[in-house]
From TrEMBL:
Protein name, per record: Glycoside hydrolase family 92 protein
Glycosyl hydrolase family 92 N-terminal domain mapped to chain residues: 32-267
Superkingdom as given in the UniProt entry: Bacteria
Signal peptide interval: 1-23
InterPro entries in UniProt: 6-hairpin_glycosidase_sf, GH-type_carb-bd, GH92_a_mannosidase_put, GH92_N, Glyco_hydro_92, PNGase
Protein species of origin: Pedobacter alluvionis
GO MF terms, alphabetically ordered: carbohydrate binding; peptide-N4-(N-acetyl-beta-glucosaminyl)asparagine amidase activity
Keyword Hydrolase appears in the UniProt entry: yes
Keywords: Calcium, Hydrolase, Signal
Cofactor: Ca(2+)
Domain Glycosyl hydrolase family: 273-734
PANTHER family: PEPTIDE N-GLYCANASE PNGASE -RELATED (PTHR12143), SECRETED PROTEIN (PTHR12143:SF39)
Biological process terms in GO annotation: carbohydrate metabolic process; glycoprotein catabolic process
Length: 752
């Protein structure tokens, strides 16, 4: 009897423990992250294993088939040519894919396969049925070799685990230092065997990043039987090789317990630092524990926002939040050493140096989201930008792996720095920051020289003149605000004038922003629907889309149209008239409602403009349509490039019910919440609680808002109110409110 009683107690205890574990697992937010979302069509997201903002993005590379393989992976593929340690996420240009490792069996093949059925090249087909992608973990079965590949990572180390078929013939791995992704090509490389289980080397390449330098150490879980080094497929003797196009084959007698583990640590500085990174971050060989640690790091970051919504909405939301944390990524070592843009090594920096700044995209919402959710990292972002300024003579434009790509237009490090300053961040040199943002606006390039004289940019002299000028005006507004805060009155006056120069491109006779020639005449013929990629007056867009790019002065734009009614009538037409780009439009113009393109960032604020004209219900209608049509939990769940977090940041803000139309005025404009509740966790154990009452597909219109127990009639909320913590109740209904957000005094004020 005693035995039976004890057994019952043990069983009950075990059951309770199991249920407790199950409950914990059930509530984990990482279960809602699906890295496959956005990997089909034009999403270009990274698929693989990483930790938040990690230097390593370890994942599979497919056979490269063009633009939709910018991240190395597209869901339409069924091939894998290797597992590489660096990847971009959501960009429109391909690069990286450094240090590819491919496990193989059978005959040694040195050439990478060119087609799925290429028997003369190394690659393997795979099935999505045998693929698992989670936050911090990736697994796939390589059909050709019957090898199960599993990947995880720390910040600077990629951890591979390959399970071979028992008794596999000639088990080996191919280390490929030749091919990267997209434009990438090797400039120099080296490989050296240090001991029975260790290889080290470097890979310098030229691609989108003009001068990328990377050092690595590869640590194997069992001794090497034989090593062969190849320079352009020619085998070289010895255990050290330096050249341009290097590969290595590493063979083993047999795979111990059928599992081969490989750790690869990266450094932008030196082999010695790569070894230090490995010893510091991943000294052991516990793969399962590393997966658990990666999951915990993601859980911690995702837990900064806890929402109540349907499971599908949770999947879309938390995957979006996950996508906002792939980059900016670490570009330093555990000892804080980093490689500067000037290719000098900076030792033991006082901040975490970062890379991958897609600023034309991210300044709009992804960077403002940082100021709420990642307050501990905002100063790192600014300090990295200021270091780049000192090293290359200007702030970053689109910075990648210690190289300036100069991709896209504007000087959009400016709103990021100014937004941080105006929100109270002071962990950087304020005087240097102001010097840097002002210098950005005083360059003599890309039409900025005309802006400096308070003139229009001539369309017959400067390409993409309207797109550039409208972006410059946003940045100049930001400079004016920081000048005002620093009591630089003359600069404030000057840059305020520059921020209004958008009006020079508005043709009242057609009510569009359009190109103006040097002689002052409008460029003709004029077709507001047409878009010629890189050849017209806009940047990946048309006149219908760019006419609204005045987030710094929406009131001024409304006045150009002649008032609220004319403004909203024209805005209505944007969403109803069919698109006709002509024959040379950009593929980025996607996610269409009429001429509105959710798939391209200059459009992201437009739906919120109705609120400035006292018609917030139209904003609500459109947001619900965008949510339904363009964001899903499927592989094609993004309607355009993820663009390093911006496409997802739009969703995160919008789902919580508000959006930063002006990227640097500290105000967020209300739309319609997509979640039922949200709790934002803030430093100092503060929380901002959002409770949405009566929310449903039909009840999409805000009726009233109560903020910290008091009625709140404004159709915007200030940043300082959110980060102070508190409670906001949003009451929803199925018809537009006749009072909330309608009065002029309750509408957003874009310039303040």
């Amino acid at each position: 009897m005693q035995f039976r009683k004890t057994s019952s107690i043990l069983l009950l205890t075990a059951s309770l423990f199991t249920n407790s574990i199950f409950a914990q697992q059930k509530t984990k937010l990482t279960q809602y992250v699906d890295p496959i979302i956005g990997s089909a069509k034009h999403g270009h997201v990274f698929v693989g294993a990483n930790v938040p903002f990690g230097a390593v993005q370890l994942g599979p590379n497919n056979i490269f088939e063009g633009w939709d393989w910018c991240s190395g992976y597209n869901y339409s593929s069924n091939t894998i040519t290797g597992f590489a340690h660096t990847h971009l996420s959501g960009t429109g240009i391909g690069d990286l894919g450094d240090i590819s490792i491919m496990p193989s069996t059978g005959k040694l093949i040195l050439e990478k396969g060119k087609t799925a059925d290429d028997q003369q090249g190394y690659l393997s087909k795979f099935s999505h049925q045998n693929e698992v992608a989670k936050a911090g973990y990736y697994s796939v079965l390589l059909d050709k070799y019957q090898i199960k590949a599993e990947l995880t990572a720390t910040e600077r180390v990629g951890f591979h685990q390959y399970t071979f078929k028992k008794g596999a013939e000639n088990p080996h791995i191919i280390i490929d230092l030749i091919e990267g992704i997209g434009w990438d090509a090797p400039v120099s490389a080296s490989l050296k065997q240090l001991d029975a289980t260790t290889l080290v080397g470097h890979r310098n390449s030229k691609g989108w990043a003009n001068d990328q330098r990377l050092y690595f150490v590869i640590k194997l879980s069992q001794p090497i039987k034989s090593l062969a080094l190849y320079d352009s497929i020619v085998v070289k003797s010895g255990k050290t090789l330096t050249g341009k196009k290097l590969k290595a084959s590493v063979s083993f007698n047999a795979i111990n317990n059928d599992k081969l583990q490989i750790k690869v640590a990266l450094s932008p500085v030196s082999i010695e630092n790569a070894i230090l990174n490995l010893k510091t971050e991943l000294p052991g060989w516990d793969f399962a524990s590393t997966v658990k640690s990666a999951d915990a790091k993601w859980e911690k970051e995702l837990s900064k926002v806890k929402i109540e919504a349907s499971n599908t909405t949770k999947k879309v939301f938390y995957t979006a939040l996950f996508h906002t944390m792939v980059a900016p990524s670490l570009f330093n070592d555990v000892n804080k050493d980093y490689l500067g843009t000037d290719k000098k090594v900076y030792k033991k920096a006082a901040f975490n140096n970062l890379t991958t700044f897609s600023l034309w995209d991210t300044y709009r919402a992804a960077n403002p989201l940082f100021t709420i959710l990642h307050q501990d990292k905002v100063n790192d972002v600014v300090n990295t930008m200021l270091a780049i300024y000192k090293q290359q003579g200007k702030l970053p434009v689109w910075h990648l792996m210690g190289s300036e790509t100069n991709t896209m237009v504007g000087y959009h490090a400016v709103p990021v720095i100014v937004d941080a300053y105006l929100k109270g961040y002071r962990g950087f040199d304020v005087n240097l920051a102001y010097e840097a943002i002002k210098q950005s606006a005083m360059q003599k390039t890309d039409g900025i020289e005309y802006i400096q004289e308070l003139k229009h940019i001539p369309a017959d002299k400067i390409n993409e003149s309207v797109g550039k000028a409208l972006e410059y005006a946003i940045d100049d507004y930001c400079i004016a605000q920081m000048a005002k805060a620093l009591n630089k009155t003359a600069d404030y006056t000057y840059f305020s004038k520059r921020s209004k120069l958008y009006s020079l491109y508005f043709d009242p006779s057609v009510q569009f922003m359009r190109g103006k020639l040097a002689n002052g005449n409008w460029r003709s013929p004029f077709d507001p629907f047409s878009s010629k990629h890189r050849e017209d007056d806009y940047v990946e867009g048309n006149a219908w889309q760019y006419t609204w790019l005045v987030p710094q002065d929406v009131e001024g734009l409304i006045n150009l149209f002649g008032g609220d009614k004319a403004f909203t009538n024209k805005l209505d037409s944007l969403f109803t008239l069919p698109l006709d780009l002509g024959t040379n439009g950009s593929p980025d113009i996607s996610g269409l409602i009429g001429n509105y393109a959710q798939g391209n960032e200059p459009n992201h604020h437009i739906t919120y403009l109705y609120t400035y004209a006292g018609q917030p219900w139209k904003t609500a209608d459109l947001i619900r349509k965008i949510d339904k049509d363009f964001y899903s939990a499927k592989p094609d769940g993004l309607c355009g490039n993820e663009d390093v977090g911006q496409m997802s940041a739009w969703y995160i803000f919008t789902a919580m019910g508000f959006y930063p139309v002006n990227p640097a005025n500290g105000a967020y404009v209300f739309g319609t919440p997509l979640v039922n509740d949200a709790v934002i966790s803030l430093p100092g154990n503060k929380k901002f609680n959002i409770k949405v009452i009566g929310n449903s597909a039909e009840n999409k219109y805000i009726q009233k808002i109560v903020l910290n127990g008091k009625p709140y009639s404004k159709s915007y909320i200030l940043h300082k109110a959110i980060v102070a913590g508190g409670k906001m109740e949003i009451y929803m209904g199925n018809t537009p409110s006749a009072t909330w957000g309608v009065k002029p005094e309750d509408r957003p004020i874009s310039g303040k």
